[in-house]
Amino acid sequence: MTTPMTDSVLLHFIQTTDPDEIADLFQAARDLRELHYGKDVYVRGLIEFTSYCRNDCYYCGLRCSNHSAERYRLSVEEILNCCHHGERLGFHTFVLQGGEDPYFTDTILTEIITEIRRQFPNHAITLSIGERSFDSYARFFAAGADRYLLRHETANETHYGQLHPNNMSLKARKKCLMDLKEIGYQVGAGLMVGSPFQTAEHLLEDLHFLQELQPHMVGIGPFIPHVQTPFSTFGNGDLDLTFRMIALTRLLLPNALLPATTAVGTLSPKGREAALLAGANVVMPNLSPLGVRKKYALYDNKICTGDETAECLKCLQGRIERTGYSMNMGRGDYIHLPF
Ligand code: 5AD
Ligand code: FES
């Protein structure tokens, strides 16, 4: 595909339903990912260490107003046990993800990161714990965290306001992302496709924002309603549009690390395979203890909440290999372009 990516071309691909055009788009995305990362699909072990959250995002099952959500926090020992289990399975990246839980102060988190770094000097430590100050991010980085995931959710100010209460702002979210980049993290932004009130123009703005931010990772998954949220009556995000957004992101950020998300796998049994075939190159199996998995319910019917990580890993390996790719258990760092 040699078409220049003008706005009208991008909008066209966001909206197209033409199977030949879509096949060409996905082929171009695969060619680019293979140019930079070959056939490798990188594996990250996800540790969902707290389901407490002080935020009240309208789309999320863990929002503080959802009083039926079961809350849990893993202890330091439990988190370290997850890492050891992950190490035995061959993982080289741990993703510590949680709600914005005030219990985990900078001091407590810094101690946890320092201890993981001490015990696992060769593993990547990724944080996904929401908005914090520049100083907090800098402390975590100094303690040994390498990467940070913080989805921007939508790059349109008005749309951001429709998804979040007004104590949250796109401006604050963007500042966090800039801070993280400045500190030196490998940074992941991202969005939900088909979130309530989203338009094709919003998705174009997302692509512009990604081009401007140049994140190392981009998480793109469909919106899936959660019954205990104000968005419970909205429909699922469109999976085909999700795949086109993954492919377009690959074209704009050729060397990005793009996960085939759990949300994609939740909406379709072959969803993650389809995401890989549209340019994704990362999978994130769950390393959280089995007993808490169902409690980390961002949306309804989340997959893999009953499977041992080892089983998920085997299942994923089969899925990856059947698409013609291979599972890579290394750190899977971002590869900078040679120019
Ligand atoms: N559907 C899909 N994704 C969701 N997330 C939160 N709630 C939902 C939902 N209902 C995503 C958000 C958040 C990430 C941790 O999970 O994009 O950044
Ligand atoms: Fe978890 Fe298939 S990836 S069971």
Structure keywords:
339 residues; alpha/beta; six-stranded parallel sheet; 13 helices; binds FE2/S2 (inorganic) cluster
Task: Describe the model.
With 339 residues, the protein is of the alpha/beta class. Helix content is 43%, strand content 13%. It has helices spanning 7-15, 19-37, 76-89, 106-119, 134-143, 157-163, 170-183, 200-213, 239-252, 262-267, 271-276, 290-293, 309-322, and strands at 40-43, 45-50, 93-98, 124-128, 147-149, 186-193, 217-222, 282-283, 326-328. Strands 2-3-4-5-6-7 form a six-stranded parallel sheet. A three-stranded parallel sheet has the order 8-1-9. β4 (124-128), α5 (134-143) and β5 form a beta-alpha-beta unit. It is globular and about 50 Å long. The chain starts with 6 loop residues before the first helix and ends in an 11-residue tail after the last strand. The mean pLDDT is 97. 5'-deoxyadenosine (5AD) binds at residues 59-60, 151, 153, 192, 221, 223-224, 226, 263, 298-299.
Care to give the gist of this entry?
This protein has 339 residues and is of the alpha/beta class. The chain has helices at 7-15, 19-37, 76-89, 106-119, 134-143, 157-163, 170-183, 200-213, 239-252, 262-267, 271-276, 290-293, 309-322; strands at residues 40-43, 45-50, 93-98, 124-128, 147-149, 186-193, 217-222, 282-283, 326-328.
